[in-house]
Amino acid sequence: MANISLSFSFILLIAALPWTRTLHAKKTNVQFYFHDTVTGKTPSAIKVAEAPTSAKSSTLFGVLFIIDDPLTEKPDPKSKEVGRAQGLYASAAQQEVGLLMTLTYQFTAGEFNGSSIVIVGKNSVFHKVRELPVVGGTGAFRFARGYALARTYWFNAAGDAIVGYNVTVLH
Ligand SMILES: *[C@@H]1O[C@H](CO)[C@@H](O)[C@H](O)[C@H]1NC(C)=O
Ligand SMILES: *[C@@H]1O[C@H](CO)[C@@H](O)[C@H](O)[C@H]1NC(C)=O
């Protein structure tokens, strides 16, 4: 993956322990594009549940989607696939379109092939930049903590979207 850069090691001191232990954590920045397709014959995001009142809600409050979205290196959907975002998001806000995202971003190419990060947090989709917490990971991203900055690159009225992710993690 061309647009991954590693930066220097950080030293985390865990002072709460009765003795002082030093953990060496690496800081990694990963960038990719997320393709969420709700339309067509093979949508990557499917609605699996909604409340009786959801259809009347301007924010689709109570709707739940399960997704398996491709992650690519560039905004172009045909660019190299570098992973998949799998899990669910739910419309969980009444005053704006705000999703609770609970997703595993599994990398399938490049340096982090086989490793994953987990993001859980609120995504106010009409905000220019959304910050989402990285709460964990596997493989190279064991013990991951960090944040993702998400910016919508493109969307249509039906709800299909391409979102740029800029993720920074200590792991
Ligand atoms: C990623 O890892 C899997 C399992 O080790 C391997 O089969 C696959 O070829 C790798 N993909 C790339 C693009 O390196
Ligand atoms: C990605 O985030 C890092 C850290 O917040 C920042 O330094 C960098 O400029 C960002 N890159 C882009 C393309 O937004």
Automatic annotation (TrEMBL):
Signal peptide from the UniProt entry: 1-25
GO cellular component: apoplast
Principal location: secreted
Keywords per UniProt: Apoplast, Secreted, Signal
Gene3D superfamilies attached to this UniProt entry: Allene oxide cyclase-like
UniProt keyword Methyltransferase present: no
Domain of life, per lineage: Eukaryota
GO BP field: phenylpropanoid biosynthetic process
InterPro entries per the UniProt record, alphabetical: Allene_oxi_cyc_Dirigent, Dirigent
Pfam family, one: Dirigent
Cell compartment(s), UniProt: Secreted, Extracellular space, Apoplast
Assembly, per entry: Homodimer.
Family assignment from sequence similarity: Belongs to the plant dirigent protein family.
Function: Dirigent proteins impart stereoselectivity on the phenoxy radical-coupling reaction, yielding optically active lignans from two molecules of coniferyl alcohol in the biosynthesis of lignans, flavonolignans, and alkaloids and thus plays a central role in plant secondary metabolism.
Protein name: Dirigent protein
Organism: Cucurbita maxima
Organism placement in taxonomy: Eukaryota, Viridiplantae, Streptophyta, Embryophyta, Tracheophyta
